[in-house]
Design a protein that fits this description.
Number of domains: 1
Strand order of the largest sheet: 3-4-2-5-1-6-7-8
CATH class: Alpha Beta
Structural class: alpha/beta
Strand content: 15-25%
Radius of gyration: 16 Å
Distance between the termini: 28 Å
Low-confidence stretches: 1-9
Bound molecules: adenosine-5'-triphosphate, magnesium ion
Mean pLDDT: 90
Order of helices and strands: HHHEHEHHHEEHHEHEHEE
Helix content: 40-55%
Largest sheet: 8 strands, mixed
CATH superfamily: P-loop containing nucleotide triphosphate hydrolases
CATH topology: Rossmann fold
Shape: globular
CATH architecture: 3-Layer(aba) Sandwich
Protein backbone atom coordinates (compact mmCIF):
# COMPACT_ATOMS: atom_id res chain seq x y z
CA UNK A 1 0.00 0.00 0.00
CA UNK A 2 2.84 2.35 0.74
CA UNK A 3 3.91 2.10 -2.87
CA UNK A 4 0.48 3.19 -3.99
CA UNK A 5 0.88 6.19 -1.79
CA UNK A 6 4.02 7.39 -3.47
CA UNK A 7 2.86 7.59 -7.03
CA UNK A 8 -0.73 8.53 -6.75
CA UNK A 9 -3.12 8.40 -9.61
CA UNK A 10 -4.49 11.92 -9.59
CA UNK A 11 -7.39 10.81 -11.75
CA UNK A 12 -8.62 8.51 -9.01
CA UNK A 13 -11.20 9.46 -6.45
CA UNK A 14 -11.07 8.44 -2.80
CA UNK A 15 -13.22 5.85 -1.07
CA UNK A 16 -16.46 6.96 0.52
CA UNK A 17 -16.71 4.47 3.35
CA UNK A 18 -19.32 6.69 5.04
CA UNK A 19 -21.61 6.01 2.08
CA UNK A 20 -20.60 2.44 1.32
CA UNK A 21 -20.86 1.17 4.88
CA UNK A 22 -22.49 3.55 7.32
CA UNK A 23 -22.33 1.02 10.15
CA UNK A 24 -18.60 0.33 9.86
CA UNK A 25 -16.23 1.36 12.67
CA UNK A 26 -14.51 3.79 10.32
CA UNK A 27 -17.80 5.55 9.55
CA UNK A 28 -18.40 5.71 13.27
CA UNK A 29 -14.98 7.34 13.67
CA UNK A 30 -15.88 9.98 11.11
CA UNK A 31 -19.03 10.70 13.10
CA UNK A 32 -16.91 11.05 16.23
CA UNK A 33 -14.73 13.55 14.42
CA UNK A 34 -17.90 15.36 13.36
CA UNK A 35 -19.01 15.54 16.99
CA UNK A 36 -15.68 17.00 18.03
CA UNK A 37 -15.86 19.62 15.31
CA UNK A 38 -19.45 20.41 16.33
CA UNK A 39 -18.21 21.22 19.81
CA UNK A 40 -15.84 23.77 18.33
CA UNK A 41 -18.75 25.13 16.33
CA UNK A 42 -20.72 25.96 19.48
CA UNK A 43 -18.06 28.35 20.75
CA UNK A 44 -17.05 29.83 17.42
CA UNK A 45 -19.00 30.75 14.38
CA UNK A 46 -17.67 27.91 12.29
CA UNK A 47 -18.95 27.82 8.73
CA UNK A 48 -15.79 27.26 6.71
CA UNK A 49 -13.34 24.46 7.29
CA UNK A 50 -9.99 23.88 5.58
CA UNK A 51 -8.61 20.34 5.48
CA UNK A 52 -4.89 20.11 4.91
CA UNK A 53 -1.84 18.11 5.97
CA UNK A 54 1.88 18.61 6.12
CA UNK A 55 2.76 16.60 3.03
CA UNK A 56 1.14 14.70 0.14
CA UNK A 57 -0.95 11.54 0.37
CA UNK A 58 -1.89 11.74 4.03
CA UNK A 59 -5.63 11.47 3.52
CA UNK A 60 -6.86 15.06 3.11
CA UNK A 61 -9.27 14.21 0.31
CA UNK A 62 -10.50 11.05 2.03
CA UNK A 63 -11.10 12.98 5.24
CA UNK A 64 -12.81 15.95 3.54
CA UNK A 65 -15.14 13.81 1.45
CA UNK A 66 -16.17 11.54 4.32
CA UNK A 67 -16.59 14.42 6.75
CA UNK A 68 -18.74 16.19 4.15
CA UNK A 69 -20.96 13.10 3.96
CA UNK A 70 -21.37 12.68 7.74
CA UNK A 71 -22.09 16.39 8.23
CA UNK A 72 -24.70 16.23 5.46
CA UNK A 73 -26.16 13.12 7.14
CA UNK A 74 -26.60 15.17 10.30
CA UNK A 75 -28.92 17.51 8.40
CA UNK A 76 -26.50 20.36 7.77
CA UNK A 77 -26.41 21.88 4.34
CA UNK A 78 -22.87 21.16 3.21
CA UNK A 79 -20.73 22.26 0.28
CA UNK A 80 -17.53 20.35 -0.44
CA UNK A 81 -15.12 22.48 -2.45
CA UNK A 82 -12.17 20.96 -4.27
CA UNK A 83 -9.69 23.71 -3.54
CA UNK A 84 -6.80 21.42 -4.47
CA UNK A 85 -6.50 22.99 -7.90
CA UNK A 86 -3.23 21.12 -8.46
CA UNK A 87 -4.32 17.54 -7.73
CA UNK A 88 -8.11 17.52 -7.78
CA UNK A 89 -10.00 14.37 -6.75
CA UNK A 90 -13.46 15.43 -5.61
CA UNK A 91 -15.20 15.25 -9.01
CA UNK A 92 -13.88 11.70 -9.48
CA UNK A 93 -14.86 10.66 -5.98
CA UNK A 94 -18.46 11.69 -6.60
CA UNK A 95 -18.50 10.73 -10.30
CA UNK A 96 -19.09 14.27 -11.47
CA UNK A 97 -17.86 16.37 -14.34
CA UNK A 98 -14.88 18.63 -13.70
CA UNK A 99 -15.29 20.74 -16.82
CA UNK A 100 -16.35 23.70 -14.70
CA UNK A 101 -15.50 24.40 -11.11
CA UNK A 102 -13.78 26.72 -8.67
CA UNK A 103 -11.11 27.74 -11.18
CA UNK A 104 -13.80 28.72 -13.69
CA UNK A 105 -15.62 30.85 -11.13
CA UNK A 106 -12.42 32.60 -10.13
CA UNK A 107 -11.00 32.93 -13.60
CA UNK A 108 -13.94 34.00 -15.74
CA UNK A 109 -15.93 37.16 -15.71
CA UNK A 110 -19.46 35.92 -16.17
CA UNK A 111 -20.36 32.68 -14.50
CA UNK A 112 -23.46 31.35 -12.86
CA UNK A 113 -22.23 29.77 -9.65
CA UNK A 114 -25.40 27.77 -9.17
CA UNK A 115 -24.85 26.11 -12.56
CA UNK A 116 -21.34 25.07 -11.59
CA UNK A 117 -22.18 23.66 -8.16
CA UNK A 118 -23.42 20.09 -8.52
CA UNK A 119 -25.56 17.73 -6.53
CA UNK A 120 -23.55 14.92 -4.98
CA UNK A 121 -26.22 12.25 -4.85
CA UNK A 122 -26.14 12.57 -1.05
CA UNK A 123 -28.94 14.59 0.54
CA UNK A 124 -27.79 18.02 1.75
CA UNK A 125 -24.39 17.70 0.11
CA UNK A 126 -23.38 19.81 -2.87
CA UNK A 127 -20.05 19.78 -4.66
CA UNK A 128 -17.93 22.50 -6.18
CA UNK A 129 -15.26 20.68 -8.21
CA UNK A 130 -11.88 22.23 -8.92
CA UNK A 131 -12.49 22.94 -12.60
CA UNK A 132 -9.64 22.97 -15.15
CA UNK A 133 -6.12 23.30 -13.77
CA UNK A 134 -5.18 26.98 -13.69
CA UNK A 135 -1.59 28.22 -14.08
CA UNK A 136 -1.80 30.28 -10.87
CA UNK A 137 -3.68 28.43 -8.09
CA UNK A 138 -2.25 30.46 -5.19
CA UNK A 139 -3.15 33.76 -6.82
CA UNK A 140 -6.69 32.60 -7.51
CA UNK A 141 -7.18 31.38 -3.93
CA UNK A 142 -5.72 34.57 -2.51
CA UNK A 143 -7.83 36.86 -4.69
CA UNK A 144 -10.49 39.25 -3.45
CA UNK A 145 -12.84 37.35 -5.68
CA UNK A 146 -12.24 34.19 -3.66
CA UNK A 147 -13.03 36.05 -0.43
CA UNK A 148 -16.25 37.37 -1.97
CA UNK A 149 -17.16 33.89 -3.20
CA UNK A 150 -16.74 32.44 0.29
CA UNK A 151 -18.98 35.15 1.77
CA UNK A 152 -21.58 34.51 -0.90
CA UNK A 153 -21.55 30.73 -0.40
CA UNK A 154 -21.94 31.14 3.35
CA UNK A 155 -25.46 32.43 2.72
CA UNK A 156 -26.46 29.14 1.10
CA UNK A 157 -24.59 26.58 3.22
CA UNK A 158 -24.22 25.77 6.90
CA UNK A 159 -20.77 24.32 6.35
CA UNK A 160 -18.23 24.67 3.55
CA UNK A 161 -15.36 22.19 3.52
CA UNK A 162 -12.25 22.95 1.46
CA UNK A 163 -10.08 20.04 0.33
CA UNK A 164 -6.60 21.55 -0.03
CA UNK A 165 -3.03 20.72 -1.08
CA UNK A 166 -0.41 20.04 1.64
CA UNK A 167 0.62 23.12 3.56
CA UNK A 168 4.38 22.56 3.55
CA UNK A 169 4.88 22.28 -0.22
CA UNK A 170 2.66 25.08 -1.55
CA UNK A 171 1.10 28.16 -0.02
CA UNK A 172 -2.52 27.48 -1.08
CA UNK A 173 -3.71 25.97 2.20
CA UNK A 174 -2.05 28.73 4.21
CA UNK A 175 -3.86 31.32 2.11
CA UNK A 176 -7.27 29.75 2.57
CA UNK A 177 -6.71 28.88 6.24
CA UNK A 178 -6.33 32.56 6.94
CA UNK A 179 -9.77 33.15 5.41
CA UNK A 180 -11.50 30.11 6.91
CA UNK A 181 -13.08 29.77 10.34
CA UNK A 182 -11.22 26.57 11.14
CA UNK A 183 -8.43 24.31 9.88
CA UNK A 184 -7.94 20.60 10.38
CA UNK A 185 -4.60 18.92 9.85
CA UNK A 186 -4.63 15.31 8.69
CA UNK A 187 -1.70 13.15 9.71
CA UNK A 188 -0.94 9.62 8.70
CA UNK A 189 1.29 7.08 10.34
CA UNK A 190 4.26 6.10 8.15
CA UNK A 191 3.61 9.08 5.89
CA UNK A 192 3.64 12.17 8.10
CA UNK A 193 6.84 12.97 9.94
CA UNK A 194 7.15 14.94 13.12
CA UNK A 195 9.35 17.64 11.63
CA UNK A 196 6.94 18.27 8.75
CA UNK A 197 4.02 18.40 11.17
CA UNK A 198 5.81 20.97 13.27
CA UNK A 199 6.53 22.97 10.13
CA UNK A 200 2.88 22.74 9.08
CA UNK A 201 1.78 24.01 12.46
CA UNK A 202 4.12 26.98 12.36
CA UNK A 203 3.10 27.87 8.79
CA UNK A 204 -0.55 27.82 9.83
CA UNK A 205 0.09 29.76 13.03
CA UNK A 206 1.94 32.33 11.00
CA UNK A 207 -1.27 33.24 9.15
CA UNK A 208 -3.34 33.03 12.35
CA UNK A 209 -5.19 29.94 11.21
CA UNK A 210 -7.62 28.57 13.77
CA UNK A 211 -6.28 25.03 14.04
CA UNK A 212 -9.11 22.93 15.44
CA UNK A 213 -7.13 19.73 15.71
CA UNK A 214 -5.36 16.87 14.03
CA UNK A 215 -7.17 13.97 12.42
CA UNK A 216 -5.06 10.90 12.73
CA UNK A 217 -5.66 8.80 9.66
CA UNK A 218 -4.69 5.23 10.58
CA UNK A 219 -2.12 3.61 8.37
CA UNK A 220 -2.44 -0.12 8.65
CA UNK A 221 -6.15 -0.36 8.41
CA UNK A 222 -8.99 2.07 8.24
CA UNK A 223 -10.08 1.29 11.81
CA UNK A 224 -7.55 3.54 13.43
CA UNK A 225 -8.89 7.00 12.73
CA UNK A 226 -8.74 9.32 15.65
CA UNK A 227 -9.08 12.95 16.47
CA UNK A 228 -6.96 15.04 18.73
CA UNK A 229 -7.09 18.63 19.69
CA UNK A 230 -3.66 19.91 18.98
N1 LIG B 1 -6.44 5.17 6.28
C1 LIG B 1 -6.27 4.76 5.03
N2 LIG B 1 -6.10 3.47 4.76
C2 LIG B 1 -5.91 3.03 3.50
N3 LIG B 1 -5.83 3.85 2.42
C3 LIG B 1 -5.99 5.15 2.63
C4 LIG B 1 -6.21 5.69 3.94
N4 LIG B 1 -6.33 7.03 3.83
C5 LIG B 1 -6.16 7.31 2.54
N5 LIG B 1 -5.95 6.19 1.81
C6 LIG B 1 -5.67 6.12 0.37
O1 LIG B 1 -4.44 6.77 0.17
C7 LIG B 1 -4.47 7.58 -0.98
C8 LIG B 1 -4.23 9.04 -0.62
O2 LIG B 1 -5.34 9.50 0.13
P1 LIG B 1 -5.97 10.91 -0.17
O3 LIG B 1 -6.16 11.13 -1.62
O4 LIG B 1 -7.16 11.05 0.71
O5 LIG B 1 -4.78 11.81 0.38
P2 LIG B 1 -4.46 13.33 0.11
O6 LIG B 1 -3.79 13.82 1.35
O7 LIG B 1 -5.68 14.03 -0.33
O8 LIG B 1 -3.41 13.25 -1.07
P3 LIG B 1 -2.88 14.44 -2.00
O9 LIG B 1 -1.78 15.09 -1.21
O10 LIG B 1 -2.42 13.75 -3.21
O11 LIG B 1 -4.03 15.37 -2.23
C9 LIG B 1 -5.82 7.34 -1.62
O12 LIG B 1 -5.68 6.34 -2.60
C10 LIG B 1 -6.68 6.85 -0.47
O13 LIG B 1 -7.74 6.04 -0.89
MG1 LIG C 1 -6.04 15.22 -2.02
Amino acid sequence: MKNNMKKQDTEKGVSLITLADKASPVSEQYRTIRTNIQYSMIDHDLHTLVITSSGPGEGKSTTSANLAVVFADSGKKVLLVDADLRKPTVAKTFNLSNVNGLSSILGKRQVNIQEIIQRSGVDNLHILPSGPKPPNPSELLGSARMSRLIEELKHSYDLIIFDMPPVVTVTDAQILSSKADGTIVVAREDVSNREALRKAKSLLNYVDANILGVVYNGARNMTEQGYYYG
